[in-house]
């Protein structure tokens, strides 16, 4: 009825926002009257008053400096527009859907606890599947802002980039992210992609 996750119900119970009654076995039970009268966002009445969430992500630990720079750009952009904002940061592959920050972002979207999503570029959200997140935002009336739209890339360049990402992820899982075999394979693939672009 409220469209929220079990985790959120637990949190609301602990925070005293929507307190559940307990069965002798300790299960939560809610009266219909408490649910129908409950407003999860009493402090926000209009979409534009909801906070802005900026999301920054890089793929690996050796890109931590890039993550900090990306977060700073997002902070400066939000501050320049005078928005109330927070930045969620993630460190992990764009093909990994099990990241802590991404899960938190999806929960905020599904519960409409944000009014705007700001990202540096489309791939900083997800390598594949960003459109699904954008569709969720559209359904919830959440504005999406991509700061760097980038120039038009050819189909071949986009395909080469996608293939490289897939090989990088699977190679890291097969050989280990820091193994010599993995690094050699990824470097070889990057060279092949660059050669193809320059041909």
How would you characterize the overall build of this protein?
Helices cover 47% and strands 13% of the residues. With 199 residues, it is of the alpha/beta class. The chain folds into three domains: 6-36, no CATH class; 47-146, Rossmann fold; 155-198, Orthogonal Bundle (Helix Hairpins), CATH 1.10.287. A hairpin with a 5-residue loop joins strand 1 (21-22) and strand 2 (28-29). The longest helix has 21 residues, at 155-175. The model is unreliable at 42-47 (pLDDT under 50).
CATH fold title of the largest domain = Rossmann fold
Roughly how much helix do the residues carry, as a percent range? 40-55%
Spatial strand arrangement across the major sheet: 4-3-5-6
Mean pLDDT equals 78
How would you name the CATH homologous superfamily of the largest domain? Resolvase, N-terminal catalytic domain
Number of helical stretches of at least 4 residues: 7
Which runs of at least 5 residues are low in confidence (pLDDT < 50)?
Answer: 42-47
Structural class: alpha/beta
Number of domains: 3
Query: What's the architecture of the largest domain in CATH terms?
Result: 3-Layer(aba) Sandwich
Spatial shape: elongated
Classify the beta-strand content into a percent band.
Answer: 5-15%
CATH class of the largest domain: Alpha Beta
Rg, nearest Å? 21 Å
**What's the SSE pattern?**
HEEHEHEHEHEHH
Distance between the termini: 57 Å
Report the major sheet.
4 strands, parallel
Strands, total number: 6
């Amino acid at each position: 009825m409220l469209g929220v996750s079990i985790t959120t119900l637990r949190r609301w119970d602990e925070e005293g926002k929507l307190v559940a009654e307990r069965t002798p076995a300790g299960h939560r039970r809610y009266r219909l009257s408490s649910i129908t009268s409950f407003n999860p966002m009493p402090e926000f009445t209009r979409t534009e008053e909801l906070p802005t969430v900026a999301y920054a992500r890089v793929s690996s630990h050796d890109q931590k400096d890039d993550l900090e720079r990306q977060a700073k750009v997002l902070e400066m952009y939000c501050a320049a527009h005078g928005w109330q904002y927070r930045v969620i940061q993630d460190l992990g592959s764009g093909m990994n859907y099990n990241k802590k920050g991404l899960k938190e972002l999806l929960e905020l979207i599904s519960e409409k606890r944000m009014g705007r999503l700001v990202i540096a570029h489309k791939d900083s959200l997800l390598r594949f599947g960003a459109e699904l997140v954008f569709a969720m935002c559209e359904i919830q009336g959440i504005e999406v802002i991509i700061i760097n739209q980038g120039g038009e890339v050819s189909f071949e360049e986009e395909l080469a980039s996608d293939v490289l990402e897939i090989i990088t992820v699977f190679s890291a899982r097969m050989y280990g992210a820091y193994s010599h075999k993995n690094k050699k394979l990824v470097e070889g693939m990057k060279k092949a992609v660059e050669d193809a672009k320059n041909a």
